[in-house]
Amino acid sequence: MNPGLKIAVTLTARIVIGVIFVYASWDKIIHPFSFSANVEAYQILPQRALYLTAIGVAWLEMICGILLVTGVWTRTAAFMISVMLMVFIVGITRAMFLDLDISCGCFESGIEGDRIGWRRVFEDTLMLIASLWIVIFPKSPLSLWDGEVTDVLGPA
After folding, report:
1. CA angle, 152 then 22 then 117, to 5°
2. Which of 3, 21, 61, 142 is buried most deeply by CB count within 10 Å?
3. Does the predicted model carry a pTM greater than 0.70?
4. What gap in Å lies between CA 84 and CA 151, rounded to an integer?
5. 102 φ/ψ angles, rounded to the nearest 5 degrees
6. Does 153 score more than 50 pLDDT?
7. What is the per-residue pLDDT for 143?
């Protein structure tokens, strides 16, 4: 693949995924109890873990999104986003197989948001592919800092 094209794809994926995750986290951070209700609807976690999980996921989305947009710890942020997306895909798919008619909790907190469905699985899968691309090819222009904790293990 042309090196210039590879860098352009990485930069585009980095900015798009980063902005999406910052945007998605905003309502969750502002309304943690509503987002906690979304998490509860998936019927996966025990009651005592819901609120802390909701707060943790929302802030992790925000931090990883900011890191991608700014180009700081790009590979690490993309890896964390990839893990979150895998969990989201499994959670949504499981809920669909259980015939749960629930809000995704993806961009709006509360039980009246967008419903789960194959469209969400498809969107999350596309974002997973893009985030894994960034993990594999993390170098791109417009980065505040290219240093990676993982760079001590070898070149990207």
Report:
1. 110
2. 21
3. yes
4. 22
5. -130, 160
6. no
7. 77
Nearest to 154 by CA among 140, 138, 141: 138
Nearest to 23 by CA among 61, 60, 54, 80: 61
The number of beta carbons lying within 10 Å of the beta carbon of residue 54 is 25
Rounded to whole angstroms, the Cα distance separating 141 from 100 reads 43
Q: How far apart are CA 74 and CA 85, in angstroms?
A: 16
State the chain's mean pLDDT as an integer. Answer: 88
Cα–Cα distance for residue pair 116/154, rounded to 1 Å: 40
Q: How far apart are CA 109 and CA 111, in angstroms?
A: 7
Whether the predicted pLDDT of 48 surpasses 80: yes
User: pLDDT tens, 63-119?
Assistant: 999 999 999 889 999 999 999 999 999 999 999 999 999 988 888 766 666 889 999
Residues 6+ apart with CB under 8 A from 99: none
- Which parts of 71-117 fold into alpha helices (H)? 74-97
